[in-house]
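Backbone-to-sequence.
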């Protein structure tokens, strides 16, 4: 389901839920969790609201949560508090007797929607005509199951922000060039860290169906073909934000996610995955100053969890991820009530033929990290 389609989804919440106070909703969620016991498992992504994350049985990034969900063999219902592609990954990895549910079907991901299977199939045909059998497709896990499946069918794999470099080294051992989807920034930043010059990277525009920029020599020499996609949250962090913080606070340390632009990552002190960001703050000395370039819910949670450290958002005007915040306490309660009544809703089901190839791409990653 595309991001546009998610916004067309009606608000499914009944009046009896909307009339409850937050305290009453929380009490009802706790009661249903107790009632269902081990039959229910609630994974919560780091970017979720506190009102939701308080009920998570596990917190983490998308792939980590999908793995944990698959390991929770007693759980019949996985109520995934994240976005659509994450629930797809969970359905891909869990067993047939486990049902994956997304509390609000409007919780999509603009980055994942920037690469659809029709665009990729057309791009692949054109790229094969230019480069022949010299390309391996690699996709960030922040992509649809169909994109993962394409990579699986064509010898490629998935990557996370924490293992992207290791997987790119594996990919270059297979083929001369990498098509990296859907986040151009993670691809560019990772390749640059490996010593690949920017002159050997080109951007593929799936809307226009062509390369952007780069002359004939650059196209011939390219090693990284970067899909023109991005995270709408992380692209909002700018070099001006960094300059402003350094001017305001000489003790500030800039910590950003590699989904930020190459210019921002290059000017930061540290860049890394969500797990690396959390670990860096956890290990930082008391009194240290940090401006963090990632989703606001996580930044605010780090501020609460580490009050002896000065923690702020790199962009003071940043808002939380809009679609991630679709999962809220009312929708969580509604989805649990549907399960308790024997009528589970918003079930995420990946077709078997897509699931098989998507799982292959994920398993290739597991084999090499």
């Amino acid at each position: 389901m595309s991001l546009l389609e998610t916004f067309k989804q009606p608000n499914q919440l009944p009046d009896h839920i909307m009339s409850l106070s937050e305290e009453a909703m929380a009490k009802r969620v706790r009661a249903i969790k107790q009632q269902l016991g081990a039959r229910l498992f609630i994974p919560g992504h780091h970017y979720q609201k506190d009102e939701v994350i308080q009920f998570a049985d596990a917190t983490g990034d998308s792939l980590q949560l999908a793995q944990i969900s698959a390991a929770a063999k007693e759980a019949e219902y996985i109520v995934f508090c994240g976005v659509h592609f994450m629930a797809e990954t969970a359905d891909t990895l869990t067993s047939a007797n486990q049902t994956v549910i997304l509390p609000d079907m409007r919780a999509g991901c603009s980055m994942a929607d920037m690469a659809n299977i029709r665009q990729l199939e057309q791009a692949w045909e054109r790229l094969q005509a230019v480069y022949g059998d010299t390309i391996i497709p690699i996709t960030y896990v922040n992509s649809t199951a169909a994109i993962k499946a394409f990579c699986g069918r064509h010898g490629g794999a998935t990557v996370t922000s924490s293992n992207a470099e290791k997987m790119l080294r594996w990919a270059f051992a297979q083929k001369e060039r990498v098509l990296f989807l859907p986040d151009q920034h993670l691809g560019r930043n990772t390749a640059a860290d490996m010593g690949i010059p920017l002159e050997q990277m080109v951007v593929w525009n799936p809307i226009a169906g062509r390369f952007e920029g780069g002359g004939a020599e650059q196209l011939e020499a390219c090693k990284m073909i970067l899909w023109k996609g991005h995270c709408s949250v992380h692209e909002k962090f700018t070099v001006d934000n960094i300059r402003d913080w350094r001017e305001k606070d000489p003790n500030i340390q800039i910590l950003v996610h590699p989904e930020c632009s190459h210019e921002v990552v290059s000017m930061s002190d540290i860049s890394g995955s969500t797990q690396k960001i959390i670990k860096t703050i956890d290990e930082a000395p008391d009194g240290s100053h940090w401006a963090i370039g990632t989703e606001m819910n996580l930044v605010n949670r780090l501020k609460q969890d580490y009050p002896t450290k000065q923690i702020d958002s790199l962009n003071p005007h940043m808002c939380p991820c809009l679609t991630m915040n679709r999962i809220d306490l009312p929708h969580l309660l509604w989805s649990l009530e549907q399960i308790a009544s024997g009528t589970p809703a918003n079930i995420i089901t990946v077709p078997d033929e897509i699931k098989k190839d998507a799982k292959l791409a994920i398993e290739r990653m597991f084999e090499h990290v």
